[in-house]
């Protein structure tokens, strides 16, 4: 069993997606259970934050199926994560934002002042370190972005000094594309922004990136942090996973 201790920072990994693209493509397991070399997609994604395995709470939000709870517990024990929780959802959600919301309100470990990092289970963030205090000072949140193209990303419209003017989903307002890492300075900041977005959502799903617009509307600051695209390895769709397999030495 994970050891319990008070934390002021947490990493949230939402895992309630259906992996529908992968099952339709003939894969027999959810994408996070698929192999990468001698490892698994789950292990490599979570190891993005191994510098914080001994200090921060890791919260995994899953659907209670396919033996996923036992899987997550086993993998976290193997990775030697000191403190983690697995929250199960009985039903599907309307998107990643709702998944995180339901996980937060269902976890009795959460303090409303805890800072929050959210990341995908199908991406690998190389060489991640939390930003310094100067960057985080007087902001309510930040997004990591890279310079890219295409229309399938979340986007940031920038201002000067790394401030965000607006975020969009699948609408390119710049070449600054989210890599899926989102930060909120506190749980209550996330919950308040989620409630506002749920009432006024402009999209078919409840995405996390547009939540920042409600923070900005209140005259609070949100920043973006540009990283090199090579620092994020994606496996969200079968073609990306197959490319990643080759990088990890899966040639069969």
Describe the 3D structure:
It is a single chain. The protein is α/β, with parallel strands linked by helices and 252 residues long. It has helices at 20-24, 41-46, 68-79, 96-106, 133-136, 187-200, 211-217, 238-247, and strands spanning 9-15, 35-36, 39-40, 57-63, 84-89, 115-118, 123-125, 141-147, 154-158, 164-169, 176-184, 222-226, 232-234. Strands 5-4-1-6-11-8-12 form a seven-stranded mixed β-sheet, sandwiched between helices. It has a two-stranded antiparallel sheet with strand order 2-3. The protein has a two-stranded antiparallel sheet with strand order 7-13. The radius of gyration is 17 Å and the shape is globular. Residues 1-5 have low confidence and may be disordered.
Task: Lay out the secondary structure.
Elements: E1 9-15, H1 20-24, E2 35-36, E3 39-40, H2 41-46, E4 57-63, H3 68-79, E5 84-89, H4 96-106, E6 115-118, E7 123-125, H5 133-136, E8 141-147, E9 154-158, E10 164-169, E11 176-184, H6 187-200, H7 211-217, E12 222-226, E13 232-234, H8 238-247
Parallel strand pairs: 1-4, 1-6, 4-5, 8-12
Antiparallel strand pairs: 2-3, 6-11, 7-13, 8-11, 9-10
Helix pairs in contact: 4-6, 6-7
């Amino acid at each position: 069993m994970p050891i319990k201790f008070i934390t002021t920072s947490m990493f949230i990994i939402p895992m309630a997606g259906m992996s529908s693209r992968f099952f339709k493509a003939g894969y027999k397991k959810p994408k996070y259970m698929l192999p990468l070399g001698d490892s698994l997609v789950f292990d490599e994604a979570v190891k993005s934050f191994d510098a914080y395995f001994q200090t921060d709470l890791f919260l995994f939000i899953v659907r209670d199926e396919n033996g996923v709870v036992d899987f997550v517990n086993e993998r976290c024990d193997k990775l030697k994560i000191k403190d983690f929780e697995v929250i199960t959802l009985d039903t599907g959600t309307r998107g990643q934002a709702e998944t995180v919301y339901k996980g937060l309100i269902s976890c009795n470990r959460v303090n409303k002042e805890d800072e929050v990092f959210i990341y995908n289970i199908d991406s690998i963030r190389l060489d991640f370190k939390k930003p310094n205090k100067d960057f985080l000072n007087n902001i309510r949140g930040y997004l990591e972005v890279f310079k890219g193209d295409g229309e399938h990303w979340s986007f940031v419209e920038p201002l000067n000094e790394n401030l965000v003017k607006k975020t969009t989903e699948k609408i390119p307002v710049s070449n600054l594309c989210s890599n899926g890492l989102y930060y909120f300075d506190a749980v209550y900041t996330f919950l308040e922004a989620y409630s506002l977005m749920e009432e006024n959502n402009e999209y078919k799903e409840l995405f996390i990136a547009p939540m920042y617009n409600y923070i900005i509307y209140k005259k609070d600051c949100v920043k973006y942090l540009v990283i090199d695209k090579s620092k994020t390895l994606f496996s969200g769709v079968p073609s990306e996973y197959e490319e990643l397999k080759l990088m990890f030495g899966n040639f069969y």
